[in-house]
Write a structure and sequence with these properties.
Length: about 240
């Protein structure tokens, strides 16, 4: 059975290597689909804080000889993500590993037998928690679980289900310069709050109603990150910061 992970990449140096590291021992190959411009439908004249060279070096160090790097331009985010099916048409399982998402210490165990429970569905949503400005404040109850496991050889008619465990989303626990850039190329830019979210919510480290588009669930609370993160994340340079950015 062939298990592949991939990252649709434009920026993300803060956590890319750690995200790859969280799955690399459990996959046969890690594919990077890199674009030097955002594929979310929004362009900007601002320079991305993360260069291709920096991102490549990080990915190479984390994935080693399992890395497969693809440069390209895609008209929209879905096309960039879907390109993985052309790159690895023989994959039995595909893990969607965003650059700011750290998988848990107990990754999904894949039974190599064709009757493994993973193949009862075409795709699987994985619960996700969102860290806010540190490793120690987190949105724990957002019910919007993204699809993060795909079984491409299983018919889409088999549907989607939800796994156990959680993925650690670090998108709002990274450099302020990266978050500021992110808002200019984000897929939800058209829905972005008009209340100067970056300065009045993110930079102010607000603790209520924190989502840049809006969500009643985005109210961070104290968390012990080591209940959710791999132990190696204790070595991350942000692990002991009270406020990141």
């Amino acid at each position: 059975m062939k298990v592949v992970s991939y990252t649709a990449l434009h920026y993300g140096a803060d956590y890319l290597g750690w995200a790859i590291r969280s799955v690399i021992d459990h996959v046969d190959e890690h594919v990077i689909l890199y674009s030097d411009v955002g594929s979310h439908g929004h362009q900007t004249d601002r320079v991305c804080p993360d260069s291709r060279e920096t991102l490549y070096q990080i990915a190479q160090q984390a994935a080693g000889d399992k890395l497969r790097w693809i440069d390209g331009h895609w008209p929209y985010e879905g096309a960039q993500r879907d390109a993985v099916h052309e790159v690895v048409p023989d994959a039995d399982v595909i893990l969607v590993v965003d650059a700011d998402e750290i998988w848990p210490t107990y990754p999904i165990k894949f039974d190599p037998q064709s009757n493994s429970p993973i193949f009862q569905r075409h795709s699987w949503r994985v619960p996700i928690i969102h860290y806010w400005r540190s490793f120690y404040r987190c949105v724990l109850h957002d019910p919007a679980y993204p699809i993060r496991i795909i079984c491409p050889k299983v018919p889409e008619s088999a549907g989607t289900d939800t796994t156990g465990g959680v993925i650690n989303h670090m998108g709002y626990a990274q450099r302020a310069a990266l978050v500021e850039y992110k808002q200019h190329v984000h897929g939800h830019k058209g829905e972005w709050r008009r209340d100067d979210w970056f300065h009045k919510v993110f930079m102010a480290n607000a603790q209520r109603n924190c989502h840049p588009v809006g969500s009643e669930y985005w109210n961070p609370e104290p968390v012990d990150p080591w209940q959710y993160m791999p132990a190696f994340m204790k070595d991350h340079p942000y692990a002991n910061l009270e406020v990141i950015g």
